[in-house]
């Protein structure tokens, strides 16, 4: 029996059984549904893309996987080189893993050990309120959402702050020298409620991290590859460590990467074996994942995806501009994300089935109805998504 995620198994509704997928569409035996959430924000090129299929097939003909312990191979070398060239400034050192949560664990471990290797004992982590960084234990610790992380009640060395510059300056003045790192979902906090904030907060955070010797970590598992309207938020403000996942492989295979800058890497580069990063996920640098990730990046570049995302944002703002209902707390739009926050969670109950009857797959949560569509969506398909959202409040 399958144990499904984020569900009370005793009371869960029957999931939709998918038999095929093509472009932006999911197919059940009865329905053709626009996937408005891109399979948890990862399938940016749509389903069954011929170029991504080919990348997988060609690599399968050679080999599917070999460990990176004592071995290497062309796909992981090419992907590392591409990321080194593509990412801003000196974000050059790629440590691969098999999921976003693990990649965040690696980033936190890097930050803690970086200071230990330098003879400093900095155990505290600064994070945001409403943060979500994954469901492994350290990522739950730096997260701040009881709906996901209620099992982990004791968080001894983590400080959470809102996205307010005044609070940022206060906590650094009081505790700045105790923090190993400051981890954020930059500009857009995903599972914590699609919360959006201004880049000025990140710019000030960069200044304070430099002043107090704190490593700045951007968790761009969800925000990377254009979701905020920027290629990466790291293009605007440079972190010390960048975490990528989800869209890295175009949603084809679970894979992630933790990318460190020169300063962090040099903190481990030593004759002392105790200074090595002792970490190694079995499927890190998987050849299939690296091959499809490389082709996914090429599609992103060749397809002028930032222009596509700007158009998605424009259409969402236009279509949702007149949405007004006393049940709505706020409508938020940024890049490829549109979110309607309601005042009471009861007001999203039933929306998923309502959307299905209108040809849209949606997965609202808590008090949020949202879309994070594949970037290949047409204007007509996107309007079908936004019309469904509006129709819910006009019943």
Which keywords apply here?
2 domains, Aspartate Aminotransferase, domain 1, single chain, alpha/beta, globular, 4-stranded mixed beta sheet, Aspartate Aminotransferase, domain 2, 13 helices, 36% helix, 18% strand, 395 residues, 7-stranded mixed beta sheet
Q: How much strand? A: 15-25%
Give the helix proportion (percent range): 25-40%
Query: Which fold name fills CATH's third level, the topology of the largest domain?
Result: Aspartate Aminotransferase, domain 2
Query: How many angstroms does the end-to-end distance come to?
Result: 37 Å
What's the structural domain tally?
2
Kindly name the structural category.
alpha/beta
Which regions have little confidence, pLDDT < 50, spanning 5+ residues? Answer: none
- Note the total helix count: 13
Gyration radius, in Å: 21 Å
Q: Architecture of the largest domain in CATH? A: 3-Layer(aba) Sandwich
Mean pLDDT across residues: 95
Question: Multimeric state of these chains?
Answer: single chain
State the total count of DSSP E strands. 16
Can you describe this structure?
By secondary structure, this protein is an alpha/beta fold. The chain has 2 domains: 20-49 and 304-393, Aspartate Aminotransferase, domain 1; 51-302, Type I PLP-dependent aspartate aminotransferase-like (Major domain) (Aspartate Aminotransferase, domain 2), CATH 3.40.640.10. Helices cover 36% and strands 18% of the residues. A 7-stranded mixed β-sheet has the order 4-12-11-10-7-5-6, sandwiched between helices. Strands 1-2-3-15 form a 4-stranded mixed β-sheet. A 3-stranded antiparallel β-sheet has the order 13-14-16, with helices on one face. Helix 7 packs parallel to helix 8 (199-212) and helix 11 packs parallel to helix 13. The mean pLDDT is 95.
